[in-house]
Amino acid sequence: MMKIFSLRASEEILKEVDKLSKIAKVDKSLIVREALERGLEKVRLEEAINLFTEGKLALSEAANTAGISVGEMMEKLKERGIHSKITIEDLHGTLKDALKVLK
Questions:
Q1: Which of 40, 78, 39 is nearest to 59 (CA)?
Q2: So where are the chain's domains?
């Protein structure tokens, strides 16, 4: 269910929303919702990356915060030149724990 949400925006933003809604022939609220959703995706990703690089989130937690898979998060980090601090020993430990659960 959609809820009503009001916000203040500059004249420039309102003009841009109006322009885009006319070009796309859709309601202004659709343009604003889409822009907000896309913007939130970026904000979640950036916050997750920042928290990961500060050591406040593990890789899986960062991926969850960003709303993407661990593999996608690894790609995003790689694109930014950020390397994971995961060691081979960490991976072996994780694999051993996973195998214990399967037994």
A1: 78
A2: 11-102
Q: How far apart are CA 92 and CA 9, in angstroms?
A: 51
Calculate Rg over the CA atoms of the chain.
Answer: 20
Are the C-beta atoms of residues 63 and 70 closer than 8 Å to each other? yes
**What's the per-residue H, E or C state across 39-58?**
HHHHHHHHHHHHHHHCCCCC
Residue 74's identity, in one-letter code, is: M
Task: Return the pLDDT at 90.
Answer: 62
Both structure tokens of 32 = 């604003």
Which tens digit of pLDDT belongs to each residue from 44-84? 999 999 999 998 988 889 999 999 988 899 899 999 999 86
